[in-house]
Write a structure and sequence with these properties.
The chain is an alpha+beta fold and about 1200 residues long. Among the domains are: about 260 residues, no CATH class; about 200 residues, no CATH class; about 100 residues, Neutral Protease Domain 2 (Neutral Protease, domain 2), CATH 1.10.390; about 140 residues, Neutral Protease Domain 2 (Neutral Protease, domain 2, Orthogonal Bundle), CATH 1.10.390; about 110 residues, Immunoglobulin-like (Sandwich), CATH 2.60.40. It has 38 helices and 30 strands. The longest helix is centred in the first third of the chain and has 33 residues.
């Protein structure tokens, strides 16, 4: 009998349109995603890991399949009122329960599997790079189905099915689906999931929690593969082990428990309805009366009363229901955890933030948008179809109530859903501000949620109600609404090549708000698009009034005919005005996007790049004129979103061949351009290219004057972070024309180049030692002078000493010049700054900051002084008589940038860091030290522009950061810095498409420059000593500080190290710099005993492995023979402040995989560790330490 019941459920679900639609939809998803070549560069599209990853991500969408199949399978008996009939048959409880569950589970699995079918088919398409496609392996797909698809669908089905069969309530079923997403979202907060959260490294404990409690196992999968290189991702499969295995076991076990409890609670025979008290009617003689029609007096007051009566009913049905209360509680949990997990020790360095209003809103706006749209999709169907589901629509529809009353009451109820979420989120955010002692509430900023993203919520509510009005099935309406939002209202629209803002239904630009500058310049585009979509939504509202279904459902075609025939002149006039508003606002958007500004689709951009390369590639050889002197005049007009530049360069020919012609490619449109003794022979306005011919060839070492001018005015809906109302920040690289053919404008994707018949780019060639030695220097230091002007209420800054300041024409002027040669990396600032200036040993320490952002000013100054002292003593004199730190708005995506003598720092990454807890890591000091150190490393000591140069810039700055932080805060600071750098190295090298180069040939890989370089430099300090290492660096700095040409290379640095290091350490230095070596260090076992003399003897067994990465990316074990520090502590290494906490800290020669060592200490030990402060690149840093 059970088999027959299961077969019936399968046949029933197969006949439903939902099965066909979902199968086709997920097949198309698979085809589209596979056709796009989903994978990082050089990753195999159909490797086992790739298939598992994309499948796991898309199982998030399986919740909707399960939800609809559950409602179709479980609630159909209630919908058609036949459940009592079924209960009276010979069907048993277990047959009914399990057949429905199995039917939902099997059909959901089958529909979702079409995604894998589509994805697998695309590997046969010719447009994918054949070198990145393996032969079809069915086992890869079956493995993903076995460990990901079936468990995930089983888990989700058990939860949704149980809620549905026990509640017999549609809304409760929707909420159960939302609950699953909430669980995943909370895990994403802990893990910083690549799908939904940030990308900063997190602790092992957070990984473990997220890996276990994520119902989709995405967190567990990312934890297992987080450090896999491209080679490993191409050759290895997801392993059923570790936290991933326990996740599957835990959630499948919980799913069985949920099902068994649901089976126990499910009543097969009893009515699900409450028995109401029976009212006895006295048997009295009832006098018969003749029927008389009641005269209905319809007035504005009656319409008003009807509306408020209906609204009360709608609000009661929605907001007093247990499902919505459940949603509200879940939302409160999301907001609370999202805010707490960031502002309270939630940064990459466990740093905290002041709870500024804009930072809190930024944290919960994304989940607010996602949850609000989900609620709009689901509740729109429930609200519109409630009376029909209750079989009460005939009575309601016959009442003398206008369609507008029905519609508006439902609309208000629907739009109040996200509004209530906003209010709850705002109250929680204000609660955090009060709890953390931050009282600048900025209530207007909170109210901005009503407009952004409230306008989107209003439009999608109008659209959802319209769709429900015209379809015959509420689930079809939900599906159409959801698909429109996904395909048109999200970034997924670009995947299907719908990119123009007028076509992306309901999608509005992101309004970025910073405390320093306010909203960015995109507000104009937002306002016009908001008007455009609201006008369209209002037209849909008019149609909804007219198409509102009353009585027996009629064909949509017959209802459409009545729309305008039954409309009054006033109504037609209003809808005409709406159409006019829709068209005019759309025309305004189109004009500003396509005509005033230049609009490019992705395809247009690729075509542009191809045409540029084909036309100007022949000028690539022209590469020899470089600035040695730069004079600029920069006029900033922040309130007008405009700036003007006039520049005069003296260029020197640093090449070896005489130049007859010169190519210039503009970045911003130039109003004037000229070369000394040269004539313009071609100006291509499409590509912004100028070709000049010199009257007489420019010989090597000749100098020539180059001038240009530009007037940059933001036009149309153009936006820029550079020129803003308060906090303008423009680097010269943003506007200066390129004096060469720009290879960066070429198409970089190899597959796209091949499709367009373009030759392969000469990239990825092996960089040999000979190349490093012989490459000509192409950059150098320059003489620099500038005059910067800004509006009367702002201060303008630039590199160099301020030699004159004056007012003219209601503008402020500043004249800066540099007595020393500087790197041509200058910036221009303008803002309404407060200032703090201090003179320290003849150096003016100047801080420019937003008036209300003075939290950390004293700590910044203290850190500057500490860095100046250390660097001056160890690396040579500071070359300027001043150092400036200027705040810039938070819309910049970096922490800081060091120009000569002037440093930019981002507001939310420095000024809002909360240091009130003295035990927290001092991120303010760390970032200040790093940027000040760049005045030596990147400016005084600047490398030749070849591979390996990042060592001198970021590597040495990271080293300075380490030693100065240690002097300020002890070894605990080193522990935190090394943990973060080590995690950064392994995390981000996993996303490198190319094979990792050795450190001395680093070529722009940030995970090497910021991660591994820190580890190697601290290891080098332990190996040869801090004093010796500093002398090597100082000798290089003294040699190169006054040179115009940049000549220092990593080979020169290594040769200097060889001269001071012991000969037996040369091979180890080569391993660190010239090979790709990783370690696996751990404490296997350790014990101690008290000796008769009162000391303690410690026995420790350490595991020490080394691995070498080959040229193909494969890791192979190699021998080890090197000194590694072992430490014994009375506290965890992360808490070590001074030497008193270190009972033992010495280097031990490690020469085998397992080594037993005996150590004597005077005090009882609490912790023992090998390499406790992270001087080796080790994936698992946590097992280096053991607690007794």
């Amino acid at each position: 009998m059970l088999n027959k019941a299961i077969l019936f459920e399968i046949k029933y679900q197969l006949k439903q349109r939902a099965f066909l639609l979902f199968s086709i939809l997920f097949l198309l998803f698979g085809l589209q995603l596979g056709n796009l070549g989903y994978k990082q560069a050089n990753g195999i599209y159909n490797s086992s890991q790739s298939i598992s990853e994309i499948t796991a991500i898309f199982t998030l969408g399986s919740v909707f399949i399960i939800m609809f199949f559950t409602i179709n399978g479980v609630l159909r008996d209630k919908l058609y009122n036949i459940q009592n009939i079924i209960f009276s048959t010979s069907v048993k409880k277990h047959q009914y329960f399990w057949s429905q569950f199995i039917g939902v589970f099997l059909m959901s699995s089958l529909a979702f599997s079409m995604f894998l079918v589509g994805f697998g088919i695309t590997t046969l398409f010719p447009n994918l790079d054949p070198e990145l496609v393996n032969s079809f392996q069915l086992s890869h797909y079956l493995w993903s189905i076995l460990i990901i698809v079936l468990p995930n669908i089983f888990i989700c089905t058990s939860i949704i099915f149980s809620v549905s069969i026990l509640s017999k309530n549609n809304v409760a079923t929707y909420v159960s689906a939302i609950l699953i997403y909430v669980l995943y979202f909370l895990c994403s907060i802990f893990l910083n999931s690549p799908v939904m959260a940030q990308s900063t490294p997190v602790s092992a404990d957070s990984y473990a929690l997220a890996a276990l409690f994520d119902p989709f196992a995405l967190s567990a999968m990312f934890e297992q593969t987080q450090f896999w290189t491209t080679f490993q991702k191409n050759t290895m499969s997801l392993s059923f082990s570790g936290h991933f295995m326990w996740n599957r076991i835990l959630w499948i076990s919980l799913s069985f428990v949920v099902l068994l409890v649901s089976y126990k609670l499910f009543s097969f025979r009893k009515s699900q309805q409450k028995i109401k008290k029976v009212i006895k009617i006295q048997n009295e003689n009832i006098e018969a009366y003749a029927y008389q029609a009641v005269k209905v007096n319809i007035t504005n007051k009656s319409h008003k009363n009807a509306f408020f009566s209906l609204l009360r009913l709608e609000l009661k049905n929605v907001f007093k229901s247990l499902p919505f209360i459940g949603v509200l509680i879940l939302w409160a949990v999301i907001v609370f955890i999202e805010i707490l997990s960031r502002i309270n020790e939630g940064g990459a360095y466990n740093d905290s933030l002041y709870p500024a209003t804009n930072l809190l809103l930024e944290l919960f706006t994304m989940p607010l948008t996602a949850l609000s749209l989900i609620l709009i999709v689901f509740y729109s169907g429930e609200i519109v179809w409630r009376e029909r589901n209750l079989k009460f629509s005939g009575i309601i529809d016959s009442t003398p109530t206008s369609n507008s009353a029905f519609y508006l009451s439902k609309l208000v109820a629907l739009i109040l859903l996200p509004c209530i979420l906003m209010v709850v989120g705002i109250l929680i955010a204000i609660g955090f501000q009060i709890a953390f002692g931050y009282y600048d509430f900025e209530f207007l900023q909170y109210l901005s949620l009503v407009y952004y993203p409230g306008i989107s919520f209003l439009f999608f509510s109008l659209m959802a109600l319209f769709i429900q009005c015209v379809v015959k099935n509420k689930y079809l309406g939900m599906g159409i609404t959801g698909l429109i939002i996904i395909f048109f209202g999200t970034t997924f629209s670009s995947v299907i090549h719908i990119e123009h803002p007028l076509l992306r239904i309901g999608n509005l630009p992101n309004l970025n708000y910073t405390n320093m500058n306010g909203f960015n310049g995109i507000t104009s585009a937002y306002n016009h698009l908001a008007l455009y979509w609201l006008a369209f939504g209002s037209i849909l509202t008019f149609l909804s009034f007219k198409l509102w279904q009353r009585g027996v459902i009629s064909k949509i075609s017959s209802r459409i005919k009545q729309v305008f025939s039954n409309s009054s002149k006033q109504a037609l006039l209003i809808v005409s005005a709406l159409v006019l508003l829709f068209v005019s606002s759309g025309a305004t958007v189109f004009y500003n996007t396509n005509i005033v500004d230049e609009y490019k689709t992705l395809s247009d951009d690729l075509n542009f790049r191809e045409a540029y390369e084909r036309k100007f590639k022949k000028y690539e050889y022209i590469d020899g004129l470089f600035p040695i002197k730069m004079e600029t005049k920069v006029d900033l007009f922040p309130s007008e979103s405009k700036y003007n530049v006039e520049a005069t360069y003296v260029l020197k020919h640093k090449g070896e061949i005489a130049l007859n012609e010169m190519i210039v490619t503009e970045k911003e449109v130039l109003s004037n351009i000229s070369f000394e003794n040269a004539s313009l022979i071609e100006h291509d306005t499409k590509f912004g290219v100028y070709i000049f011919r010199f009257e007489s060839p420019i010989q090597p070492n000749d100098e020539v004057v180059f001038k240009y001018a530009l007037e940059k005015q933001l036009k149309g809906f153009e936006t820029s972070n550079n020129i803003v109302n308060n906090g303008s920040y423009i680097m010269n690289r943003d506007f200066k024309p390129s004096l060469r053919y720009r290879t960066g404008m070429e198409i970089s994707n190899a597959n796209e180049r091949e499709r367009r018949g373009l030759p392969k780019r000469l990239e990825g060639e092996e960089v040999t030692d000979d190349h490093i030695q012989n490459t000509n220097s192409i950059l150098g230091r320059i003489h620099y002078e500038t005059i910067v002007s800004t509006e009367s209420n702002q201060i303008a800054l630039a590199s160099g000493e301020l030699i004159k300041e004056w007012k003219e024409n209601n503008r402020n002027y500043y004249h800066y010049t540099s007595d020393n040669l500087i790197m041509p990396i200058v910036g221009y600032f303008s803002a309404n700054y407060d200032t703090q200036k201090t003179n320290y040993n003849g150096i003016s320490i100047e801080q420019y900051f937003h008036p209300s952002h003075d939290f950390n000013i004293d700590r910044i100054e203290e850190s500057i002084i500490e860095t100046l002292d250390y660097c001056t003593e160890n690396f040579g004199a500071y070359p300027f008589n001043h150092i400036r730190v200027a705040e810039i708005p938070g819309h910049w995506g970096f922490g800081g940038f060091a120009h000569p003598s002037t440093i930019s720092m981002t507001e939310d990454r420095l000024y809002f860091v909360d240091l009130r807890d003295a035990s927290s890591f001092d991120l303010v000091a760390k970032r200040t030290i790093h940027e000040v150190a760049h005045q030596w490393f990147g400016h005084i000591l600047a490398p030749k522009n070849i591979d390996g140069g990042s060592i001198f810039v970021e590597g040495f700055a990271k080293y300075t950061e380490a030693v100065v932080m240690e002097k300020m805060y002890g070894k605990s600071a080193i522990w935190e810095l090394s943990r973060n750098s080590n995690k950064r190295y392994f995390t981000f090298r996993a996303y490198d498409a190319n094979i990792e180069p050795p450190l001395y040939k680093v070529d722009g890989q940030s995970y090497l420059a910021y991660g591994k370089s820190f580890t190697v430099m601290t290891a080098l300090r332990d190996l040869i000593g801090e004093e010796t290492l500093n002398k090597v660096i100082k000798k290089l700095a003294d040699k190169h500080r006054d040179k115009v040409e940049l000549e220092v290379t990593t080979l020169e640095f290594l040769n200097a190290l060889y001269r001071v290091a012991e000969p037996e350490h040369h091979a180890l230095i080569d391993d660190w710099f010239k090979k790709v070596i990783t370690y696996d260090l751990s404490i296997e076992d350790s014990s101690y005993k008290l000796l008769s003399d009162g000391t303690y003897e410690i026995s420790v067994k350490v595991k020490s492995k080394r691995f070498k990465v080959s040229d193909t990316g494969e890791m192979t074990p190699i021998s080890i023979n090197e000194p590694i520090k072992i430490g014994v502590f009375n506290t965890h290494p992360s808490n070590v402040k001074d030497d008193d906490s270190m009972l033992y800290y010495e280097s031990n020669q490690i020469s085998q995989e397992l080594t037993e060592i005996k150590i004597n200490v005077k005090e009882k030990p609490s912790y023992i560790a090998i390499d406790p402060f992270g001087t080796r690149s080790d994936e698992n840093f946590t097992d280096n330490t053991m607690q007794y």
